[in-house]
Amino acid sequence: MLQIKNLHAGIDGKEILRGINLEVKAGEVHAIMGPNGAGKSTLSSVIGGNENFEVTEGEIILCGEDLGELAADERAHKGIFLSFQYPVEIPGVSVTNFIRTSINESRKAQGLEEMTASDMLKKIKEKAELLEIDRKFLSRSLNEGFSGGEKKRNEIFQMAMLEPKVAILDETDSGLDIDALRIVAKGVNTLKNEDNAVVVITHYQRLLDYIVPDFVHVLMDGKIVKSGGKELALELEERGYDWIKEEMK
């Protein structure tokens, strides 16, 4: 579903990603872990199409289509979803209006008619209940005055409404208490199926207690240096990253 081949990218002339190779198949959950400065958030930004980063080599392929020349909004319409580590506040734009516009723009890009108001309301109600979101929350300005947990829950609500092919969750667990973490994880687990895939970027094993990965990858110095099953995350929690650095020498 998502293939990344020999991806090199950087910013302001500084190379950050130094040859990333990753293959994510439909129905799979992949976790990417690594120390600060390893390039995890850069990877998510580059996949999402953040134009501040320059790709100097390699390919990003979604369902057989090279995304290299596509802008961020075009990638979103194709089925890439990026949940931000620090969601932006947008005063004056309600959560509902933002979602409605996002869905209809994607449908337009795919040659589909706008979703009817009744279908939209039905879907909003269904997904809000899934994520235990109060209906009053939906009329508030996007992320304005939201707690950390509310912002992250709103990101997963957007994911639920947009139904992407590949969802990339960039440190969704940062700043969450245990209750918010459980609700966010429940939403992700309910939404994943055999027709989509999830890439979770995290520092901590605790998120992976709730969103159990099929594969765990360790990113260091801009490269994936080790991959394994969910037990690798437990080993990282226990031993840190120094032992992997020793293996690399």
UniProtKB/TrEMBL annotation:
InterPro entries: AAA+_ATPase, ABC_transporter-like_ATP-bd, FeS-cluster_ATPase_SufC, P-loop_NTPase. Belongs to the ABC transporter superfamily. Ycf16 family. Residues 2-246 form the ABC transporter domain. Pfam families: ABC_tran. Keywords: ATP-binding, Nucleotide-binding. This is Fe-S cluster assembly ATP-binding protein. CDD domains: ABC_FeS_Assembly. One of its GO terms (molecular function) is ATP hydrolysis activity.
